[in-house]
Amino acid sequence: MLQTEQEFVRILKSRLEGTLPPEELSDIVSDYTEHFRIGRTEGRLEEDLFRSLGSPEDIAREIRATHLVKKAEAVTSCKNILHAVLATIGLGLFNLVFVLIPFIILVLLLVIIFIVGVAFTVCGPVAGIFALLQLAGNPSFAIWLSPAAGIFFSIGITALGLLLVIGDLFLARFFYHIGIRYLKWNIGVITGTERLT
Amino acid sequence: MNIQFKKGVLEICVLSVLAHKDCYGYELVNEISKRIDISEGTIYPLLHRLKDEGHVTTYLQESAGGAPRKYYRLTESGRKEEHEQKEEWMQFCASVNALLEGKNHAAD
Question: What ipTM was assigned to the predicted interfaces of this complex?
Answer without folding.
Answer: 0.85
